[in-house]
Specification:
CATH superfamily of the largest domain: Aldolase class I
Structural class: alpha/beta
Order of helices and strands: EHEHEHEHHEHEHHEEHEEEHEHEHHEEH
Number of domains: 2
CATH topology of the largest domain: TIM Barrel
CATH class of the largest domain: Alpha Beta
Shape: globular
Radius of gyration: 21 Å
Strand content: 15-25%
CATH architecture of the largest domain: Alpha-Beta Barrel
Distance between the termini: 30 Å
Bound molecules: iron/sulfur cluster
Length: about 375
């Protein structure tokens, strides 16, 4: 099984926190789509005949592209790969792109899950982040999708924003829950250097929130969402039963994937490749940076993804894939975390209790092989 990811790198407006690969050159969209079709052909052998079971349109802003053009990419992929068992097909969308015409077209495609970039329902916070929509528009977008029978919706929220503390977060959670969506992703704001927030930070015009404030907000999300019946199954992800994100979960389980589009990454179990080309260079011809993964890379990657998930590290898997010696080292390294209650060992697995996911980076780092 494998995943197929299409990266649509176009945005109408650049959000203050964003350091994803994205461009505002909408005039290049058609040429970019043509290049993506070419790349699909060029990469036909990358996954060694693996069956595709999830497809994901991410960005950027895939909802800027007419759904029937996205369907053309799906159809093309189905000519190249075995897509007979594809279940989940997700599109990331911005709330202000969701109108009746777009939904009508979406319903004629294989796309069956919508990931809405809501980030906040608070208009002041949305403006601070330079988002294109208001809180009301975000709510209306969800309801429009639901009215059209699209109920597999996930929304993204951002927390940990300087100047917008627990009260705003509490209202955001309330409004998210009242919409009845089955999946919520909640990301702590990280301020990256090459962003508007990064420049403001350097100029002293904004701060990163304190660690204690981060913990308060993280705990609030965990408590409120789990109390509402959501399973906290990954550091930033909450789902009602049966609604875990299948495509993203496959990344965390080390499943192979092919990424198509400028800036997309691919992994086939042996190597990873990605492009650092700008959009115009990508359109002109694809060039990749290829990384061969060493056993140490595989181990570090496994530890990093496994400990961010509820299931944790499978001790048997570590012994089988990396050796008994590595497993012994893992057990020695986690001993202090077990003593402090930040890690538990149960059913042959080493895991971080979901309420303590906040400290996962520190635990992961202590287990890395350098
Ligand atoms: S819409 Fe998404 S990809 Fe585009 S600038 Fe905003 S956060 Fe970045």
């Amino acid at each position: 099984m494998a995943g197929l990811y299409f990266h649509i790198p176009f945005c109408k407006r650049i959000c203050s926190y964003c350091d994803f690969f994205r461009v505002a050159r909408l005039d290049l969209l058609s040429d970019c789509l043509l290049a993506m079709h070419s790349e699909l052909d060029e990469q036909r052998n990358f996954l060694y005949d693996k069956k595709i079971d999830t497809i994901y349109f991410g960005g950027g802003t895939p909802s800027l592209v007419a759904p029937n053009q996205l369907q053309m990419l799906i159809d093309h992929a189905a000519q190249i790969f075995d897509c007979g068992s594809v279940g989940e097909v997700t599109i990331e969308a911005n709330p202000d792109d969701i109108n009746d015409g777009w939904i009508e077209q979406l319903r004629t495609t294989a796309i069956n899950r919508v990931s809405l970039g809501v980030q906040s329902f608070d208009d002041a916070e949305l403006k601070f982040m330079n988002r294109r929509h208001t809180g009301r528009e975000a709510e209306a977008a969800v309801m429009r999708l639901q009215d059209a029978g699209i109920e597999n919706i996930t929304i993204d929220l951002i927390f940990g924003v300087d100047g917008f503390g627990e009260e705003v977060l509490s209202q955001n959670i309330e409004r998210a829950l009242s919409l009845g969506v089955p999946h919520i992703s909640a990301y702590h704001l990280t301020i990256e250097p090459n962003t508007a927030f990064g420049r403001r930070l350097v100029r002293g015009e904004m701060c990163e929130i304190s660690e204690s404030q981060s913990e308060i907000e993280y705990a609030m999300l965990h408590q409120r969402l789990t109390a509402a019946g959501f399973e906290h199954y990954e550091v930033s992800n909450y789902a009602l039963e049966g609604y875990r994100a299948k495509h993203n979960s496959s990344y965390w389980q080390g499943v192979e994937y092919l990424g198509i589009g400028a800036g997309a990454h691919s992994f086939n179990g042996v190597e990873r490749h990605y492009s650092e080309q700008g959009i115009e260079e990508y359109i002109g011809g694809r060039e990749y940076i290829v990384e061969q993964l060493t056993p140490r890379d595989h181990y570090n990657e496994y530890v990093m993804t496994a400990l961010r998930c509820k299931e944790g590290i499978d001790c048997r898997k570590v012994a089988d894939n990396f050796g008994e010696k590595v497993l012994r080292r893992v057990k020695e390294c986690v001993a202090p975390w077990i003593d402090s209650g930040d890690v538990v060992v149960a059913d042959g697995s080493i895991k971080i209790p979901t309420a303590r996911f906040m400290i996962s980076d520190a635990v992961i780092e202590s287990l890395f092989e350098v």
